User: Fold N-acetyltransferase domain-containing protein from Actinotalea fermentans.
Amino acid sequence: MEHDLVLAGHGVRLVPVAREHAPALLAMIDAGLWAGMVTPPPASVDVVAASIEAARGAPGRYAFAVLDDATGEVRGQTSFYDVVPAQERCEIGHTFYGRAWWGGRTNPACKLLLLTQAFEIWGMHRVALRADARNLRSIGAITRLGAVPEGVLRGHRIAADGTRGDTAYFSILRDEWPAVRAGLEARLA
Assistant:
């Protein structure tokens, strides 16, 4: 959906993703980075731009480009999606970062900004995160956030190569948020 939400702090800035971000996003994507996604790795700027337009048009989705706050360099993208204010829930996902930012401060900084928005501004009760069950790197990152594993949805999605994949689900509830926030702040200190 079209939005004007900008979140900034801890060296990153999340801005509404736009076509202008497509070349930088394409440059960081490779088959390994894209493993577990339901679409094949994009092969052109136009394909990335089309996915950006689809994200911007999806109801209940706030799609962001992740930028270096000082330089404006694109580091990746992330989203809120399935935002249901009446049920006080949303999900965070559609996330990837260029390999240069794996294992560093980018993911904890983004998650701190997104979770603060969800729990402290929007008043959410539940924020869910998920990953392809084969994507151990993403599952590790979600676990390090302090999200609670909820289980695996078997045969939940069809991967780009036509195989069926399982989806590992995690969540953070409102009363768990203070401990998760403290952990993220400690990682960023």
About this structure: The helical segments are 22-28, 31-34, 45-57, 106-121, 136-145, 177-188.
